Every structure is written in structure tokens, then in C-alpha cells.
Amino acid sequence: MRPKSKARPRRYKKPKVCPFCTGELEVTDYKDTKMLRRFMSETGKILPRRRTGVCAKHQRRLATTIKRARIMALVPFTEKLVRK
Amino acid sequence: MPTYEVGMILNPNLEKEKLELEKEIIQRAFDKFQAEVKAVDEWGNRRLAYPIEKDTEGYYLFYTVEMPGGNVKALESELLIRDNVRRVMIVKDRPEWRTKKQ
């Protein structure tokens, strides 16, 4: 067993601020695809909030908005991953 | 009465007269369900994120409408009767959810 002192140091993470709480972006606007793509992965998945820094309340509403945009074919349900 | 946003995707290959006819039918459906049109946002043909009925484009139309809440489902099914209407989504406007500051 490895001694505990050799455990990898925790990476320091800059705390992020929810862009919806600051009034920078609009959560309910499902037509703003550019904004929504910011919170989606390359393959079209909704990103977890630990990566985007959105607060829990707005993450729930954002998920609804993305799903609405998917129905209206504004953003994809899935997209093939293109390897470079 | 609550405000709703009605989003629609129509057939992108319609001619001008046929498009006008579709819009007239939509307007008639609104009148039938006491929906008062407040604003129209017409995007026209736009590329879709995925093909719908083998078309990669769609004609986008958005109406902002005021109507009694009980009529939403009936209006949606009425609008979907036409074959040229491919998607209908009626979303309630929630001013208390808005986050953007002016």
C-alpha cells in the first residue's frame, strides 16, 4: 500500500460564478443556440455543472431549455465525435 | 391570461402562395382558440440540427400569443393537422424565471 503522504495533491480550482445569477445570460431563451452550445459537449450532451459553474437552480432550468431547443432542431440530440 | 410562445417548423419547400395559405390556416386556428397574437418572429428557412422528414432545412415561425391556459393542448393538435407543419411547440412565458438584466 502507498503511504498516505504520497497522495496526489488536490488541484486548486478557481471558483466559478453562475452566469445566470449574475444576469449575464438568459436561461429561458431556447432560441439562443450560441449560448446553449456553451453548456453542451462537442457530442451534444449537457455538461455537468461542476464543469460549467452553473448553480443548481439554473442548471435545472438550463436542462429544460436545452431539451426544448433539441425538439425544435436548433441544437442536436447527438453529434458524431470528430477525431482530429 | 398567460402569455405563450408558439414555435413552429414548416416545410421549407413551399411556394409563396402556399406559405401564405398555411399562415392563414394558422391564424384561423389562433382565432378558434381565442389566442391573441402579440408578436411574430419569422426566421425563414434555416438549417436544422438534424433532418426532419429527410429535409435538412426548415421554415421557422415564432408567435407570441396570449390565450387561456386550457386551450393549449387543443391548439397544438389543431396546428399539427396540416402536413406542412412539422413541429409545434407551445411554451409558457415565465417572467419570474428570466435572468438577464437589462
Order of helices and strands of chain A: HHH
Count of distinct strands of chain A: 0
General shape of chain A: flat
What would the average pLDDT of chain B be, to the nearest integer?
Answer: 93
- Beta strand % of chain A: under 5%
Total number of helices of chain A: 3
Low-confidence stretches of chain B: none
The total of beta strands of chain B comes to: 4
| Quaternary | heterodimer
Low-confidence stretches of chain A: none
Biggest interface, residues from each chain: A-B, 22 and 19 residues
Q: How widely separated are the two ends of chain B?
A: 25 Å
| Main beta sheet of chain A | none
**What is the CA-based Rg of chain B, rounded?**
14 Å
Quick recap:
The complex is a heterodimer of chains A (84) and B (102). Chain A has 84 residues and is an all-alpha fold. Chain A is built from 3 helices and no strands.
Summarize the structure in words.
The complex is a heterodimer of chains A (84) and B (102). The termini of chain A are far apart. Chain A is mainly alpha-helical and 84 residues long. The radius of gyration of chain A is 17 Å and the shape is flat. Helix content of chain A is 30%, strand content 0%. Chain B is α+β, with helices and mostly antiparallel strands. Chain B contains two helices and four strands, in the order E-H-E-E-H-E. Chain B has helices at residues 16-32, 72-79; strands at 3-10, 36-52, 55-66, 85-92. Chain B has a four-stranded antiparallel sheet. In chain B, strand 2 (36-52) and strand 3 (55-66) form a beta hairpin. The longest helix of chain B is centred in the first third of the chain and has 17 residues, at 16-32. Chain B is globular. The model of chain B has no long low-confidence stretch (mean pLDDT 93). The interface between A and B is medium-sized, with 22 and 19 residues.
